[in-house]
Amino acid sequence: GVSRQAMHTTLNQMVKMGMLELGDDPEDGRSKLVAVTKMGQRMRKDADAAVGALTEELRRRIGKTNVANLFKAFEAEWGEAPTSLLVRR
Prior knowledge:
The chain is mostly helical. The protein has helices at 4-16, 38-62, 64-75; strands at 20-24, 32-36. The two termini are 29 Å apart.
């Protein structure tokens, strides 16, 4: 559901930040292979640790059952993304 242009922009930004690297696809000259750099791996590890710590704090504050229910809601099929949202003021 993401446009080619949006993916291209996002990947290029992540390459500039040092998170990803692009390489030639030996099977398709029109394509690139995307790989996570060592820095990107460290960033992912740090993000996983932060999410884990925040999840534990949330469990402490609102309880394990409520957190489990939140995860169920987030993992549920929400259907197609809305193409437009009305904002009334």
